[in-house]
Structures are given as C-alpha cells and as structure tokens.
Amino acid sequence: MRSPLHILHFLSLVSALWPQPISYEHGSVVLFIKKDVQFYWYEAGARNVGSVADQHPDQQPFTFASNSNTGPNAQETLKLRKRYTESSFDDVNDWDVEEGVSGHDIIDYAIKSSWRTLFRWNLYPWKFHPRNWDEPSPQDQTTGVSEIHIRLLHADPSNVAKPLAGEVDESYILKLDEGGKATISANSSVGIARGLTSFTQLFYKHSDEKHVYTPYAPVTIHDAPKFQHRGINLDVSRNWFTVADIKRQVDALAYNKMNRFHLHVTDSQSWPLEIPALPELAAKGAYRPDLVYTPRDLKHIQRYAAIQGVEMITELDMPGHTSSIFYSQPELIAAFNIQPNWDTYCAEPPCGTLKLNSSAVDAFLDTLFDDLLPRISPYSSYFHTGGDEVNKNAYNLDDTVKSNDSAVLQPLMQKFVDRNHDRVRAAGLTPVVWEEMLLEWNVTLGSDVIVQSWQSDEAVASIVEKGYKALVGNYNYWYLDCGKGQWLDIDPSISAQQYPYYDYCAPFHNWRLAYSVDPYAGVPAENQHLVIGGEAHMWNEQTDPVNVDRMIWPRGSAVAEVLWSGPKDAEGRNRSQIDASPRLSEMRERLVLLGVGAEPIQMPYCTMDGMQCQLGYTGN
Ligand SMILES: *[C@@H]1O[C@H](CO)[C@@H](O)[C@H](O)[C@H]1NC(C)=O
Ligand SMILES: *[C@@H]1O[C@H](CO)[C@@H](O)[C@H](O)[C@H]1NC(C)=O
Ligand SMILES: *[C@@H]1O[C@H](CO)[C@@H](O)[C@H](O)[C@H]1NC(C)=O
Ligand SMILES: *[C@@H]1O[C@H](CO)[C@@H](O)[C@H](O)[C@H]1NC(C)=O
Ligand SMILES: *[C@@H]1O[C@H](CO)[C@@H](O)[C@H](O)[C@H]1NC(C)=O
C-alpha cells in the first residue's frame, strides 16, 4: 500500500501553476533568485535599436543565436533590445499618455510587473506544507537564478494589443536550467507576458522576508491557450466602481491569463460613461454627477488592460436596459419606470427602452457612437451593442410603434441592429451582441458578429449551427451574482409564495460547478471551432467595491482554467478537483498578495496535509 506520507510529499511539490499548462516538467532543485537578476530582452527581425534601447546607450545590441531545441525558429537570429537591471524595474514609463499600446509596451510592462511580483508580493507558502516543514535555507545556495532571457521570436502584428479572436499567438516555452538560466520564448509579446506570469508562479518568498526561491528547478513548460476568448464581464452600472476597483479586476484576470475584459458600462440604473458630445447623459444619468468615467478614465482603463494583453470590450446595452438615458433625454425612452407592475414591461426596474422607430433615437445614436467609438478603436477590435432582455410589451407604450406584435417589431429591430452595426464597422470595430438578437428576434447578423450566449448550452449549439462565432457563459454556471437571494423587496401579500426569497438563478454557483463546465457541451464536433471562448459574468445588483473581489475571485480563476487549459486533462478526462484545489488555493493566496480580496476555498488544514480533504479518492 502506498504510504499516505509519500502522497503528501508528492502533492506539496506539484502545486504552483494556474491555469494548468499543456506540459510542465520540473525537478526539485532549489534555486534562489536575487533582486539584481538580469532580464535580457531579445527580439527577431531587423536590427532594432528603437527608443527603448536608446535610453540605455551603454547597452549595445548584440546577437543571440537561438538554441536548436526551442522550436522552428532555430536559425533565426535574435538581437538584444534591452537589458534590465534593478534600477529599471520601478521607472514607470509614460505609458499612460500615448495613444495605442505596442508589443514593446506589453513586454516592458510584463518584465517590470513580474519583477515586482517576484520581490515585493511573493508568497510565503506555509499553507502548502505540513507543520514543521523543511523550508529551503538561503545558506545552502550555491547557484541561483542569474539571468532571464526573454526571446520574442517574431515581430508582433501591429494589432497585437487589440486582436480579433485567434490573431495573436499566446503560446510560450519556459525553461529554467539547474545552472540558473531562465528562458522564455514566444511568438508574440502577449505570449511573453503569459510566460512571465507562469515564471512568477514558480517562486516563493522565504519566511525571513528577504529571500525568494523556486523549489522546482529544472523546469520546462510548453503552453498555449485552448480558447481564444477568455474573459470576465463586469457590470459597473448597477453599482459604482472606481477606476482603481476596475483596474484591480484587470490585474486579477491578467494574472489568470485571461485576455478579454468586458465592461458593461451602462444600464437602466445609471449611465456613468461621460460622452462629451452629450454632456447631460452622464451628468444626469449617473447616480451622482461625479460618479462618472471621464474620457481620460476610459482611456486609462483600456490602456491598463491592453498593456497586460487584455483587450477591453465596452458594451452599451440597447435597446433595452437604457432607462438611464431618460434622465437627460426623456423623449427617447418608452415605458420609463412603469410601477408597480413593472414586470410586464421589463426584466427588472426601472423599465424603459429606446424607442424603436424614432428618428430622434437614430440621431442620438449617431452622435453617441461618433463620440465614443474613435476612443475605443485604439484599444479594441470589438464593440458590444447589447440586445438582451428586450421586452415587446414596452413597445405598446412607444408612441413611434404602439404595438407588441412581433411581425411589426422584428423589421424595426433588424433596422436598429443594422444601423448600430454599421456604425461599429465604420469605426473599424467588430460587433458583439447578446444571443436574443439572433435566437429570439431572428435578426440577420453580419458574419463578422460574435454572439454572446447566456441562457443555455442549447443556445450555444444554435448560434454555431447558424454559422456564427459564439461565446459561452451559461447563467446556471458562470453567473457569479447568483445565490445571494432576492434584491427585490417582497410585499407581505406574496411573501409566503416567495419564501425563502431565492433569486432567479439560485443557488450560488461554487467554483467546482464553474470548473466542471465544458464549453463544447452539446455542440457537434464540426461546429466546435465556432465556440471561440467565453466569459464569467459579474452582475452587480448586490455587489459593489466592498465585495466585488470575493464575488469574482477565485471563481473567475476556475473559469480561466477551463478556458485556458480546456475542460479535459491530458488523458481526455474531466479535470480533477483533487488536482485543481491546491493549485487554486495557491492562486488565491497570490491574488491576495497582488491586492485582490479573493476568497479562500479551503482550510489550511486541507492544503497543508494534502489528501485529507478528499471524498471518494481512487488513487488516479
Ligand atoms: C511559435 O510558432 C511556431 C510556428 O507556428 C509554433 O510551432 C510554435 O509552437 C509557436 N510557439 C512557440 C512558443 O514557439
Ligand atoms: C415608423 O415611423 C414612420 C414615420 O414616423 C411611420 O410612417 C411608420 O408607420 C412607423 N412604423 C411603425 C411600424 O409604426
Ligand atoms: C401584447 O399586448 C396586448 C395589449 O396590451 C396584451 O394583451 C398581450 O398580452 C401582449 N402580448 C404579449 C405576448 O405579452
Ligand atoms: C423568430 O422566429 C421564431 C420561429 O420562427 C418565432 O417563433 C418568433 O416569433 C420570431 N421572433 C420574432 C421577434 O419575430
Ligand atoms: C464530465 O463533466 C461533464 C460536465 O461537463 C459531465 O456531464 C460528465 O458526466 C462528466 N464525466 C464524468 C465521467 O464524470
């Protein structure tokens, strides 16, 4: 019989990486790393002594021949672009003032933030070892990690920071030899950033608070994402979030190797997005005139995401979910705030929808999109025009339509969506819509459009069956708001029938449930290429900056691993919670150290003692 202690020892050595790479081989040699570790950044192509290298005239470019074992680019000559020393890691570039984000910005940011993660907010891993464990001793070190070679194997495409799905290769190869030399190779800057993220997860802080080491040398990692679109959707209309609250979520999602950040920025409850051409929109539509995102804020958030290889997708949900426009332009909105029987006219109060046959609405949307889209296009290839939960009865009260008949409404909706998508395309962007536009309203969409599903696995199957690219995010698994109970106050007259006040999508979806999702569920093999990824959704009726971190994390991490690593392990089996849980616990600790208030998923007792907290373990 296998000794349980043997199992414990084994498990305590295999944690670290989240999400799980395609392949990860490692030894058990301890290597310390010092703050003066040198980062060398090499890149392919023409001799390039661009602006970054120019700032360091003492460091002349020199050539670096690739090793034959690092892929098909063996013959390619890489040239040194920049060498980083300890003093480089804290100079904050003026990345926030320029327009657009380049691959060089991404690598520079990734190197600096990885250095800070390694040396400022690293993890003392006591929760992952038994009591009285043998912590590596800094006295024993003979060699350490001395050099980190960053090897960008190909020149980046110009849209590296705002690709369409699949246009940027995020794969990387990470090697760390016993002699202390680390190499991260990738075909794109984003791949380098992903590799550096993995690199930081190999290291721990010593309890002396001074030393940092990895117990895993030598290491070889080959990695690439399974799905092209891996994101979180954050609703910042139902509750107000500061720019810092939003950036914290971006940091967390980048650390989980997610690459899309969907900002559901407006809704019926508030319009916090400032539109200079329509100044009253936010001045009156926001909860408070000062609770707004200025153009500068919007740019800052988009840049902050893009520089971490995360493309922001801004959503203006319409024609439903728009009542907040009423505060500035009442003539554009039908069925505003019908009470008390709001549920005939909308999914949640306040009701209100953009009128569907109104030239005033059309002119308003021209102005709105003309103002906003040119500020999106430097940072994203997408724009989300919404389209969920449109209530037909609201158009009985729309003086431009006065009907809830599908035969009347459908052609108007087609025109409404066509005009919006023409505006989006004219700005060089690709439209994203909620599934109802296609599946309930039968709107004919351009073949470029991505359809975001939320209601069922069957909806995903129908979207791809019709030939459209689909995003998954079934509310039964990936809605992070569910299970908190009703936010509506139930009248005593119906209290008994509503008892015990569950919300519509209860119960709470725990990480194990989120983790068990197969994005291909019910999709025939020949259509699976159209399932390009998915998003977990944070709707915020009952979430604000106080609890948002723990509402999203680490459940968002479970979603991130499904989308990066795929729902099946290397043997084609469903991923095991027994494998995932210590790694997810460690990811949670690392997120906390990065400033994200992620929830614990277990007691230290479970992670310290390996196999004590399993149920039904069969030994494989
Ligand atoms: C880079 O691209 C090549 C050729 O397409 C591919 O074989 C390799 O896996 C990619 N990734 C890395 C990290 O080299
Ligand atoms: C839409 O508006 C136009 C012009 O105001 C009107 O002629 C037309 O009948 C309206 N369509 C519907 C379906 O009400
Ligand atoms: C359409 O509106 C009429 C008139 O208000 C109403 O009686 C009917 O139930 C509505 N149809 C639907 C499907 O809600
Ligand atoms: C869309 O098509 C379905 C099936 O033909 C139909 O039941 C539904 O009423 C249509 N929706 C609209 C808004 O026309
Ligand atoms: C694997 O997970 C799926 C859900 O994605 C579930 O339906 C199926 O039963 C699981 N298979 C096994 C063998 O547990």
Distance between the termini: 14 Å
CATH homologous superfamily identity of the largest domain = Glycosidases
The CATH architecture designation of the largest domain is Alpha-Beta Barrel
For the secondary structure, the number of strands is 18
Largest sheet: 8 strands, parallel
| Distinct small molecules bound, one entry per kind | 2-acetamido-2-deoxy-beta-D-glucopyranose
Protein name: Beta-hexosaminidase
EC number: 3.2.1.52
GO cellular component, one term: membrane
Catalytic activity: Hydrolysis of terminal non-reducing N-acetyl-D-hexosamine residues in N-acetyl-beta-D-hexosaminides
Nutshell version of this structure?
This protein is 29% helix and 18% strand. With 620 residues, it is an alpha/beta fold.
Helix-strand blueprint:
Blueprint: H1 4-13, E1 23-43, H2 51-54, E2 63-65, E3 77-84, H3 103-119, E4 144-152, E5 172-176, E6 181-186, H4 189-200, E7 204-205, E8 212-223, E9 229-235, H5 243-255, E10 260-264, H6 279-285, H7 295-306, E11 311-315, E12 333-334, E13 353-354, H8 359-376, E14 382-384, H9 406-426, E15 430-434, H10 435-439, E16 450-452, H11 457-465, E17 469-472, H12 475-478, H13 492-498, H14 511-515, E18 531-538, H15 548-552, H16 555-565, H17 577-593, H18 604-608
Parallel strand pairs: 1-4, 4-6, 9-10, 9-18, 10-11, 14-15, 15-16, 16-17, 17-18
Antiparallel strand pairs: 1-3, 1-8, 2-3, 5-6, 5-8, 7-8, 12-13
Helix pairs in contact: 3-4, 5-7, 8-9
Bound molecules: 2-acetamido-2-deoxy-beta-D-glucopyranose (5 copies).
